[in-house]
């Protein structure tokens, strides 16, 4: 099973650099990388081309013009160019652990998809890490406890303990909790069957919840990737959330329509 890791980015080269470096050191090498670029300037393209020269990763850069926050559209365009059987959606500011792809592969089961988890890094720690000459997971791991005690990270044990698969990971019904598009995996055939992300949902917020709801509505089982697939989410300022309420309303409308049809 070949995996396609679809990395969303927008004008943040230093973070994207560390994300790609972390993917370059995976224990599972059977994957490709598609960078879903929501309209970054030309320096991002130049960086990606230079990174290709120093990596063994298979990388494809999928870009469209900057016309506001159109994450759903660029993810769909990158998905259309992916050759893998299984998709892992990742954000360009989420550095991964060395076994990230391996752990997602272990959780990949027919009829299921996985919503992964994240560890939040604060602004101070993010600046410190991005000042390193290169990404170094061992160096990061050596200081986990001090990072937690100083509130540099918001979780400790999920980075120290990995749990296997089991029925305890399965959600029984749709809930908004822990849906993060920055760490989300599903089969290509299932993504295509629901038409991918809803491209009419523009602006920040809830296109990932809509995607998850429609996958579950199709009859798929949602699995939790917690204690297995945690990513290290670098700090960034809060995005413009002016469209979030409207996007959330549209998702709730779909949920209500489903509940009404069942009754």
From TrEMBL:
Signal peptide: none annotated. Residues 173-223 form the Galactosyltransferase C-terminal domain. SUPFAM superfamilies: Nucleotide-diphospho-sugar transferases (SSF53448). It comes from the Bacteria. Residues 4-119 form the Glycosyltransferase 2-like domain. Keywords: Transferase. One of its GO terms (molecular function) is transferase activity. CDD domains: GT2_Chondriotin_Pol_N. This is Glycosyl transferase. The lineage of its organism: Bacteria, Pseudomonadati, Pseudomonadota, Betaproteobacteria, Burkholderiales.
């Amino acid at each position: 099973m070949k995996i396609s890791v679809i990395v969303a980015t927008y004008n943040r080269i230093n973070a994207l650099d560390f994300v790609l470096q972390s993917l370059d050191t995976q224990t599972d090498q059977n994957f490709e990388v598609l960078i879903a670029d929501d309209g970054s300037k030309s320096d991002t393209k130049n960086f990606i081309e230079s990174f290709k020269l120093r990596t063994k990763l298979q990388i494809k850069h999928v870009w469209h013009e900057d016309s506001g926050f159109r994450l759903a559209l660029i993810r769909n365009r990158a998905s259309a160019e992916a050759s893998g059987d299984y998709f892992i959606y990742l954000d360009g500011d989420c550095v991964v652990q060395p076994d990230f792809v391996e752990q997602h592969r272990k959780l990949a089961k027919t009829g299921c998809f996985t919503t992964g988890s994240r560890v939040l890094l604060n602004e101070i720690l993010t600046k410190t890490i991005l000042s390193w000459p290169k990404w170094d997971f061992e160096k990061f791991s050596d200081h986990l406890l001090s990072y937690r005690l100083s509130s540099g990270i918001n979780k400790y044990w999920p980075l120290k303990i990995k749990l296997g698969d089991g029925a305890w990971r399965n959600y029984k019904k749709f809930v908004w909790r822990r849906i993060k598009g920055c760490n989300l995996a599903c089969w290509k055939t299932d993504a295509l069957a629901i038409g991918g992300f809803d491209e009419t949902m523009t602006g920040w917020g809830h296109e990932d919840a809509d995607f998850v709801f429609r996958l579950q509505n199709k009859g798929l089982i949602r699995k939790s990737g917690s204690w297995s697939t945690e990513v290290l989410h670098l700090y960034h300022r809060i995005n413009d959330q002016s469209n979030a309420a409207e996007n959330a309303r549209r998702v709730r409308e779909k949920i209500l329509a489903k509940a009404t049809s069942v009754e």
